[in-house]
Design a protein that fits this description.
Elements: H1 2-159
């Protein structure tokens, strides 16, 4: 019976040693897995941190680009307003230039009409001057004939 108890005790000791060995193996594998997981977690955390930094850089860059885009949009709108104002001024200037051209043409036409009227008046004046000179000459001739007639009449009267 003692041998059997010793044998059972030896088997139990063997089983316990085997179990301790198994526990030790499982413990070592667990530590190894925990270490691997810990390394993986650190790598994943580092990658996550890098990705978050990149995301923040991308957001900052996007915000800068949005601000630049907004600024460019404002500059474009301002330029567009300036162009519209210049186009309006150009249109006004073109309209004024056309109006001034029309006024200049009217002034030229009036000047030409006045010149023509002056020429006609000069011609009429020259004709009137000639007519006056002709009338004076005719009056002088008539005066002379009248004097001659009076002289003849006087002579005739004296001779009678």
């Amino acid at each position: 019976k003692l041998d059997r108890t010793k044998a059972e005790s030896a088997r139990k000791d063997e089983t316990i040693a085997y179990m301790k060995h198994q526990i030790q193996t499982v413990r070592e594998e667990s530590f190894k897995k925990v270490g691997d997981l810990d390394r993986s977690l650190r790598v994943a955390t580092a990658e996550h941190d890098k990705a978050e930094e990149e995301l923040n850089r991308t957001r900052a860059e996007s915000a800068r680009k949005d601000a630049a885009s907004t600024q460019l949009q404002a500059m474009c709108e301002e330029s567009s307003k300036k162009i519209d104002n210049l186009m309006q001024k150009l249109q006004t200037t073109t309209f004024e230039r056309e109006r001034m051209r029309e006024e200049r043409d009217r002034a030229r036409k009036m000047r030409d009409e006045v010149k023509e009227e002056c020429e006609r008046a000069k011609e009429e004046s020259a004709q009137k001057d000639e007519a006056i000179i002709d009338m004076k000459r005719q009056l002088q001739e008539m005066g002379q004939r009248l004097r001659n007639s009076i002289d003849e009449h006087e002579l005739t009267k004296q001779s009678l």
